[in-house]
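Dear colleague,

Thank you for sharing your sequence with our group. We've completed the structure prediction you requested, and as agreed, I am returning the results in plain text so they can be pasted directly into your records. Please verify that the sequence below matches your submission; if there's any discrepancy, let me know and we will rerun it promptly.
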Amino acid sequence: MISTRARQSSFPSRLGIALVLALSADFLLFDQTPGISVFIFAALLAAAIILVHRFPGGQKALLAKCVALLIGLVPLIENVSELSISIALLSLAAFALAMAGRLRARLLPIVEQIFGFLLVTPIHLGWDLRRWRLAARRVGGGTVKLVSLIVWLMPLILSAVFIALFGVANPVIEHWLSLIDFWALLNRIEIARILFWIVVIVVTWAFLRPRLRRRARRSTWLPVSRQTTTIEDIVFGKAAILRALILFNAIFAIQTLLDGAYLWGGVALPAGVTYASYAHSGAYPLIATALLAALFVLIAMRPGSATSADGRIRMLVYAWIAQNVVLVISSILRLDLYVSIYSLTYWRVSAFIWMALVATGLMLIMARIAFEKSSEWLCSANFLTLFATLYLCCFVNFGALIASYNIQHSRELGGEGQQLDIYYLRSLGREAVPSIDRVFAEGRLTTGNSSPILRQQLYELVMRYDESNANWRGWTFRNWRLSRYLERNPFAPATQDAASNER
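Please find the predicted structure tokens below.
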């Protein structure tokens, strides 16, 4: 009974904290340029999580979890993007579950808990409202009776009538009422703002009161071992896998030799085939091939199976994985050749990163087989690799990197690539301005009709940056570095440059 009353009484207090967080989000985030305000709101949410939970691990454990959370929120200080926000959400989810004492010890179950928690975040408040209503009925005295609301109906209506009458009878009260612009108050009620408040309350509530659905226990009526031989045992048996690996190694060896001859050996391509078409046609299918090969190895080399204990199969698997790694490296080289001709984009940068992750995953599969690790170890290692890669990507200015590469390899600067795509450079945003401005400052991009157009469009970008940077909520460390650069290197429009040259 006491615990039920305690839970019932904690509901209004946490709902009040959720309302305060919604008010803070309205001030920091609604209709504002995202920046340091996102980090501040995440820190406020973390403080609220600490406030509503009594963590039993002690101050040292709490400090360790706060430090881990801070590491997850640091990318928001560098730059606010989809990636940094995703990492912050994962970190806050892990922090909330840990503060509630619901986080498990091993990495793979932790990942399952975090994603399961985030998936059901929108319905957490609905669950708890229903549970609170049922608990209030059981305890008694906690329900809000309809009579108590009706009691206030008559006094409020009559009070409004009396105030209106006094306004007619008393010029002073009439003047006070005239100062209240009721239409302006109604116009202040925005549908978008109401929806924003609802979303913030629903999301923050899930972090303030994290709950996980209990998974149903696996049924144990199935027999542990089977004595009969099935089609699956024949198709994926030891003999079939041995023959498959021999064929796979032979086929992959032919592909590896062809790539070695054409990409690294300098052998001339057949007539009508260019390096660009050769590079573009093979990059992504080879990655799909490597992923399919990894899936086959995971199925064939299950821990404790007869195939994993066979020395011949293990050697064939090692050789096949090594060839897959070579193919991934070949895919990276193919994409590099394609990019050197057709320029760099965000999607192609993502492809480079994805290919590197696939190669790392293949080597982790080889390590799992060699050291006889479990599937949980493999999944945990891959997740750590993915998370570390995405975390580091939050601190890389890809816009500046892409702009610098495309300019350096453009025909305007004597490169082998295509002419500068002005519109794509402009779409990279203000982060690419310093990389492009350095080329103008060095006088290396002064020919052609594209130069003044690009200069003018970049100047417009800088002007929009100055307007958005005027609000402190949009501050980020990357924007601060850009503002410092623009202070040291004032960016003038093309018309001013032309006028200065005439003088």
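Summary note from our side: The chain has a mean pLDDT of 76.

Kind regards,
the structure core
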